[in-house]
Amino acid sequence: MADNILLQVQGLAVAYGGIQAVKGVDFEVREGELVSLIGANGAGKTTTLKAVTGLQSLQGGEVKFLGQSIKGRGAWDLVKQGLVMVPEGRGTFTRMTITENLQMGAHIRRDKEIQADIEKVFALFPRLKERRNQLAGTMSGGEQQMLAMGRALMARPKLLLLDEPSMGLSPIMVDKIFEVVNDIHQQGVTVLLVEQNASRALELANRGYVMESGLVTMQGEGRTLLSDPKVRAAYLGE
Ligand code: ATP
What we know:
alpha/beta; Rossmann fold; 28% strand; ATP binding; BCAA_Transport_ATP-bd_LivF; amino-acid transport; branched-chain amino acid transmembrane transporter activity
C-alpha cells in the first residue's frame, strides 16, 4: 500500500492571463506520506494546490487523484472522493459556532459516526472543545486555523491539502499547528503541506519538493533536503 499513488501531477502548467505562474510541474503523493511543497512567496505553491483541487483551470498537464483525472469534476465530487483542502486564510464560517462549523465539514456524509468524529477532532484540538459554542469569527487566527483543519478532517480526507497553515501565527501557535499536522499524519491521513516555513515543513515530511518561479527545482527525502546546503542557503537563511 505504501506505493499506492493517491495524487499524480504531470506537466502541470497554469497561467493568469499573460503571467505563467506554474510552468510544467511533476510531483506525486503516495498513500500514507506527508509531502511538503516549499518555496518563496510567489513561487506558485498556492496556484498548484488550486489546480489540484480544480479551483484553477489548467493550461497544460494533468492531475490524477486515485488514478482518475480531476478534469471536469466539481469540488463536491472531489471532496466526496477524499480530496480535501484547507485554504490559505482558513475560510471558516464566522457566524457559526465551532460545533456548527465542524458539522458543516461533514455535509457530504450520511453515516452515523459524525458525532464520534467531532469528539475525535476535539481530542486533537482541546481548545476547540472548550469553545465549542463560541462563534468562529470571535476566535484568534490560530484557533481559526485549528477549526479549519478540524472541519476538513470531518470530511474524512484520504488526502489533506494544507495551504500555509502556519502563516501569520504567533511562534507558540506555529509550534502547536505543526504538532497537530504531525499528529494527523501519524493517525494515518496522507498530507500535502504547502509552507514557507521550510525547516518545520521538511522536518515533518517523508518527502519534499522545492518550487522556484513556477518550477520544481529540487526534490527528495525531507531530511535530505533539510541538510542540503542550497536549501539551507535559500530557505533557512544560512
Ligand atoms: P504565496 O506564498 O505568496 O501564496 P505561492 O508560492 O503560493 O506564494 P502563488 O500564489 O501561486 O505563489 O503565485 C504564483 C504567481 O502567480 C505569482 O507571481 C502571483 O503574483 C501570480 N498570481 C497568483 N494568483 C494570481 C491571480 N489571481 N491573478 C494573477 N496573478 C496571480
